[in-house]
Amino acid sequence: MAELICHTLLTQVPELQSFLDEHCPDVFFINVNYMPGDRTAHYQDCCGLDVALEKASTGRPVILFSFLDEVYLTQTQPRFAALMGKKNVGFVRAPFLNQKVREMYDFFKAGLKVDDLLPQKLFELHRRDAEVARLKHGLSHAQKNSGQEMLQWLAQARAAGFMGTDHEVIADVEAWRRKDSGLFEGQVFQGVFVDWQGTLVQYQEAAPVLYSDIVSMACAEAGALGGRTIYICTGAADVAQVFKQSRELGLSWPVVSKNDVNGAILEVLFDNETPTKITYLYGITAQKFIQVSAGEVVR
Questions:
Q1: For the whole model, what pTM was predicted?
Q2: In which domain of life is the source organism classified (predicted)?
Q3: Which residue segment(s) compose the domain that 74 sits in?
């Protein structure tokens, strides 16, 4: 029986449940903005994503829905991006037609979607970063208080994977940086990755101007590889600003930080820098590297 997880007062819920039972009998259909019965959560907390992470592990089809935009959710909710990287998870934006849900369900059952490991790995990095941030915050309190608190903190740090003497554990937690996580070292990620400034756009009076030919070339590369995801891959410190500006230019590609994927091997990379410099700065290499300058490929 299909499982509909939804707090929203949708007028079509009875009809939708009946439709799912008939045409998508083993699906989990989950509202991204689902709120638990205790009402301690908020709409923006996207609690349905926590439910979906649990349900997706069963291997059954999971279809998410929300009135929020998919690109916005991908960029602002690491849980959503990680889920959408799974081969058994999809999304429809409300309001939706039931037929759209059935088409997505049939797509999953036919085994036509494959796993995209990058967003799943980025979510792992996000969780690790949050875990270490909590340890760093807890360390400052433990150092000011009783020896018992320090012992408890050390136990938590070791449970999180920090090993060695007490001094080494403290030093490693304090020195940990997101870009040095090692999670991406030597791992190959499918997709077409396009550098932002100097490659995809040039700035004129602080405003980005799009190189449309680079967009076309990236789309052609993605199509030739069977419809790979295209990512904006930036070295800019403010990833949110790059995402905002890319949306204003009409692009719907997810944005990733070069620092976050330090050590990775990318399938295709467009960049205005040389491969040697990119590897030096970010530890990134590419299976296929396309160097560009002023909107054109460097021959």
A1: 0.84
A2: Bacteria
A3: 3-115
